[in-house]
Specification:
Elements (H helix, E strand, L loop, with lengths): L1 H19 L3 H4 L10 H8 L1 H4 L2 H10 L4 H15 L2 H10 L11 H20 L7 H8 L4 H6 L7 E5 L5 E3 L2 E5 L1 H8 L18
Parallel strand pairs: 1-3
Antiparallel strand pairs: 1-2
Helix pairs in contact: 1-7, 1-8, 3-6, 3-7, 3-8, 8-9, 9-11
Protein name: Maleylpyruvate isomerase family mycothiol-dependent enzyme
Keywords: Isomerase
Pfam families: MDMPI_N
């Protein structure tokens, strides 16, 4: 548990540092999250730290029970109201915040940070390698049920990492780096040429 907390804190600080170095054009560039720019993703990453449970419940009620609608509204509102430095600062200031998503515990929190970080870096073409220890933790959490929740269909394929000893599933081999396979399992459309053969993008 303490190790996971350290990995989460390190990931948040590193993403905050990366955000501090982005240009105005990069902040407004599309991310891998459909409909969100980099700034909306950054705002969403710190949402769990900044809203109390009663506030979340209130926003969820106003969104008629739709978690997706609620998070979309809050990300857009926060991204519009906060300057880039503030968005990065929120992530850094809450690096050790104990927030976890509704399911998944600390591993889920790490996945939230790592994958949303890649939503930014991959979309911008930045060559950031997520530290292997973090990738391994998250690959160990990959499941058919979890992938389905994120809109990914892993049936009929065997994910095979070419940079570490890991595979998942059965069927047609799909090969790529561990972090690219992680993106795929989290329902993201992986850029062309990074998975072989290309399985088709999921969102």
């Amino acid at each position: 548990m303490e190790q996971l907390k350290s990995l989460i804190a390190a990931e948040r600080r590193e993403i905050a540092d990366l955000l501090d170095g982005l240009t105005a054009e990069q902040w407004d560039a599309p991310s891998l999250c459909a409909g969100w720019r980099v700034r909306e993703v950054a705002a969403h990453m710190s949402m769990g730290f900044r809203y109390s449970l009663p506030q979340v419940v209130g926003h969820l009620v106003r969104a008629r029970g739709s978690l997706h609608r609620m998070t979309d509204r809050l990300a857009r509102a926060d991204a519009a109201a906060a300057a880039p430095g503030q968005l990065a600062g929120w992530l850094r200031e809450h690096a050790e915040h104990p927030w976890t998503p509704p399911v998944g515990g600390l591993a889920g929190a790490l996945g939230h940070d790592v994958v949303h970080g890649m939503d930014i870096t991959v979309a911008l073409g930045l060559d950031r390698r997520v530290p292997e220890e973090r990738v391994r933790v998250l690959l160990g959490q990959v499941s058919y049920r979890g992938a389905k929740f994120f809109g990914a269909d892993l049936s009929g394929v065997r994910l095979c990492a070419d940079d570490l000893d890991w595979s998942f599933g059965s069927g047609t081999p799909v090969t790529g780096s561990g972090q690219d396979l992680l993106l795929f399992a989290f329902g993201r459309k992986v850029p062309a040429g990074r998975l072989v053969p290309e399985p088709g993008g999921r969102r």
